[in-house]
Amino acid sequence: MQLFKNLEELRGWRGQQSGRVVLVPTMGNLHEGHLKLVDLAKLHGDQVVVSIFINPLQFGANEDLDSYPRTLEADCQALAERGADAVFAPQVSDVYPRGLHAQTFIEVPGISELLCGASRPGHFRGVATIVAKLFNMVQPQVAIFGEKDYQQLQVIRLMTLDLSLPVDIIGMPTERAEDGLALSSRNGYLSTSERALAPALYATLQQLANAVGAGTLAPDIAVAEARQQLADKGFRVDYLELRRQQDLQPATPEDTELVVLAAAFLGRTRLIDNLTFTRNY
Ligand code: PAF
């Protein structure tokens, strides 16, 4: 496996590739969920490039940019064992040569302001900008993203469509621990007691999806109950919302392809999760 620490090295290698290149964008601190993205990537092309870049543009002023775990060596070892072909781990100055504040950015309107976008202003602008830049740098034919960040995936799909980027976007179902907790780099911040509580987030989403999917509870009541259940267990709910899948606007009675999305704090750790389902009645 090759490691490229700057754009020039990456471009030199990319110019020699004739097959299909698949990109797996990450911020490092890799866990099994990321490695499953690599497994899927291998099925979609000839060369798998994993980018590892902690993107300052998508972190808010009070977020965990400084403390975000930086584990390049262990990440590269895991990726080599998993059969990735190349890692692209550029410096901030390479990615943002004119500085963060001068950077041209990409904003996907509407969807970027909802849900996580409301709690994290500017976050999806940072995500859309870095993903478009990574597409230009790596020039993949395919890119793989986890469905755990469902809103991010939809923002990237819309950006790719709006900018006519020649990249197929593939979503990968969320990888979970045995007790249902979605794998995330931020799970490492949870204390032992918080970790024991954390699976309740997904369990609550499942209950809601079952009830709304089968029509046994009205959506408004199911959402209110789910929020209350999480609060009773000790979560501080940032949002828990039932939306239609495509653009994440509030679901109307006519919408059948639905997603329930939640962000909730346990202590200082913000967990997110979601579940897509079809309303059958
Ligand atoms: O999901 C992530 O890890 C990041 O948001 C991404 C897509 C790599 C962009 O920095």
Automatic annotation (TrEMBL):
Keywords: ATP-binding, Cytoplasm, Ligase, Nucleotide-binding, Pantothenate biosynthesis. Pathway: Cofactor biosynthesis; (R)-pantothenate biosynthesis; (R)-pantothenate from (R)-pantoate and beta-alanine: step 1/1. CDD domains: PanC (cd00560). The active site is at H34. It holds the Pfam family Pantoate_ligase. It is found in: Cytoplasm. It catalyses: (R)-pantoate + beta-alanine + ATP = (R)-pantothenate + AMP + diphosphate + H(+). The keyword Lipid biosynthesis does not apply. Its EC number is 6.3.2.1. The reaction proceeds by a bi uni uni bi ping pong mechanism. Belongs to the pantothenate synthetase family. This is Pantothenate synthetase.
